[in-house]
Amino acid sequence: TTEIYTLSLHDALPISMTLLLLMACSEYDYADIARNETFVQPELDGATDVLFVVDNSPSMEEEQERLQSSFEVFADVLSTSLADFRVGIVSTDVGEAGALRGQFDRDTPELTAAFAQAADVGVSGDREEQGLESAWLATQNTDFSREDARFNVVILSDEDDHSPASVSIYMQQFQRHAGASGFVLHAIVGDEPLGCVSQGSAADAGVRYIEAAESTGGYRDSICQGDYGEILERIGLQVAGLGDSFYLGELPQPETLEVRVDTVLIPGREQDGWTYEPDENSVRFHGRSVPRAGMTVQIRYQPLLGSPIDSGQ
User: Fold this and answer.
1) C-beta of residue 50 within 8 angstroms of C-beta of residue 86
2) Dist. CA 215–CA 217, nearest whole Å
């Protein structure tokens, strides 16, 4: 009896050759070789000044208390960094002509307590809040901002800005004032488009402040948050020249991520650890786990099956 066999191309070729042909037909990397990426946390080059503009209108009592109770996170970030920092506080009432309610630096005793006392700006201010104008008056009428320092403004208000000039004009003025050192505005205000309500208080949308923050690359968060610790930590890190997010070269299999700082394994968790942020394809550190200046971050992971090859690595 004669048996007839049919032999396909794949049957005829060695397995190794077959794999090569399959790989040649794909634009994707299917290898399960782990990827290692290394980053170094930068150090701030130069001085930095941070002006808090705190709304002192009659509806701001709860929000001022939240700022005071959350400031310790901000102070810890600055105090443990190498930054040459200065912090000041003004109100949104332009009748005060940008007068400082307080000014602090690294040598201020009990920095958190001193800030909390100065941040209690009261609730008897003008109801027509003019945060941008007040910040600008502070640059003109005080010696708070230094010529060689990066200038940062942090707005806390439950109303939109009613300053007389356009947002773009104020941003141009601040940029010219800061010069090569740079200017950034951060906003803790009411959410767009309709504002927000929380814990018995309410806020109108801070449209102009949000526009200012977006135009300068600043952070923004809702004033209706029960705690301002997270946003103040992020602002503090930026002020100190530090980053909390490190962007990966390829999409990872999240369960394979392994993160070390100066060879110390960091837990994957939201409190004093790290989380993977898929929208940014980044590893983001939280709390005390954020690397300080000069520290090395090592991230090891298996690339996601089918993720494009990054030719730059």
Assistant:
1) yes
2) 6
Per-residue pLDDT of the chain (313 residues; tens, 9 = 90+): 433 333 333 444 454 444 444 444 444 444 458 999 999 988 766 789 999 999 999 999 999 999 999 999 999 888 878 889 999 999 999 999 999 999 999 999 999 999 999 999 999 999 899 999 999 999 999 999 998 899 999 999 999 999 999 999 999 999 999 999 999 999 999 999 999 998 767 899 999 999 999 999 999 999 999 999 989 998 998 888 888 899 999 999 999 999 999 999 999 999 889 999 999 999 999 888 888 888 999 999 999 876 554 544 4
CA dihedral 133, 162, 192, 234 (to 10 degrees): 20
Report how far residue 81's alpha carbon sits from residue 104's, in angstroms, rounded to the nearest whole number: 16
DSSP assigned state of 266? P
Q: Token digits for 51?
A: 């002006």
Q: How far apart are CA 205 and CA 133, in angstroms?
A: 18
Task: Please give the structure tokens belonging to residue 227.
Answer: 């705690």
Contact criterion met (CB below 8 Å) for 100 and 144 = yes
Rounded to a whole number of angstroms, the distance between the first and last alpha carbons of the chain is 60
Whether the model pTM is above 0.90: no
Coil, helix or strand for 159?
coil
What order of strands is seen across the sheet that includes strand 258-261?
Answer: 35-40, 296-301, 258-261, 264-265
